[in-house]
Target: Zeta-crystallin
Amino acid sequence: MKAILIDAFVSNLSDLRPQNTKPPPRKSENDVEIRITHAALSHVDMLYAQGLHQNNRRHVVPPFILGTEFAGIDESGRRVFGGGLGSFAETIRVDSSSTRLVPNHWTNAEACAVGASGAVSYGALISVANLKAGETVLILGASGGLGVMAIQIAKAIGVKVIAVVGDEEKGEMVRGIGADEVVDYRREGWEERVMRLTEGEEGVDVVYDGVGAVESGIKCLKYRGRLVVVGFAGRGGDIEKVRANRVLLKSVAVYGYRFGEDGRRFPERTKQVWDGFMKMVDQGKIKPVIYKKKYEGLRDVSEALLDLKERRTWGRAIVTINGHGETEVAPKL
Ligand SMILES: NC(=O)c1ccc[n+]([C@@H]2O[C@H](COP(=O)([O-])OP(=O)(O)OC[C@H]3O[C@@H](n4cnc5c(N)ncnc54)[C@H](OP(=O)(O)O)[C@@H]3O)[C@@H](O)[C@H]2O)c1
Model:
């Protein structure tokens, strides 16, 4: 089959090309083989290709097939979506617990755009930061794949959302999916602007940090506020060192949330997270956000990753791997 195989980490994303490789072997009896129709591009893929992610030290080392999120058709002809290493390929094998049925009102491309991002953001906001109706949340990295889910989850439970972005088009997009206020982090003193947007200028109740800006986040929190660290998309590998007195002065709580590891240690908790998120999906409260540019076939993975690196994309960029797969096998009900 064809796939984007990483036999050595690349320094230039434009060097990524599809090549012939063996289909993945069966590892356990719970494995399912999925014919991939769509794959999503994420920040993690960009780091994995270059060997810059913490997992590249032990868990994800060459040779491996790139890509972490997919939608496709399983062996029973059902439309499924999910996560697992190796999605930039014609087929993938994953444990059946890593897939979910595509909701009837979504196409495969839409399900692929949501992937695990909805569950990650739900877990971070609801299970970890305990966000509640009537509160205000600040979302850093609001226009990205995780951020667009975080905005909609917060709105679904009746929370005021302040979204932080670095581009006008992205600002319009996040308003379109429910953000109440938009702040541009390219403007000097954007944290003060956030404070002015909160009740009594006291700060937000919760910060969702997908970019790695904890000190800025703490500046925007109210006394005894909560901050959840989800990712470091804005750091380019140079992780921030946080001054501990910032945590103490406002008596804030700083949490981390690692979705994959949580799932390995506490599968039941992660199931609850998925169930909570999918309930919102079934109630029609979550809209997939697909970046406007079309990427066709594995040969476009490299261009899509470059667009992601240059921060042109918003929501999720999606590559169509097999455009006929979805309609040919399982019509949308
Ligand atoms: N904790 C977990 O379990 C988990 C799971 C999946 C992913 N992650 C991590 O979460 C992070 C976000 O993932 P994603 O898939 O949402 O990434 P993404 O789709 O690439 O989005 C990243 C966002 O960060 C913003 N950004 C980039 N540089 C920035 C900067 N210097 N300052 C402020 N904002 C900046 C970008 O928006 P602008 O263009 O507007 O700046 C973009 O919207 C990544 O670090 C990823 O590795 C964590």
Remarks:
- The pocket of NAP is lined by residues 42-44, 120, 141, 143-147, 165-167, 170, 185, 210-211, 230-234, 257-260, 308, 311 (CB under 6 Å).
- The CA atoms of residues 223 and 250 lie 5 Å apart.
- The mean pLDDT is 94.
- The longest strand covers residues 31-41.
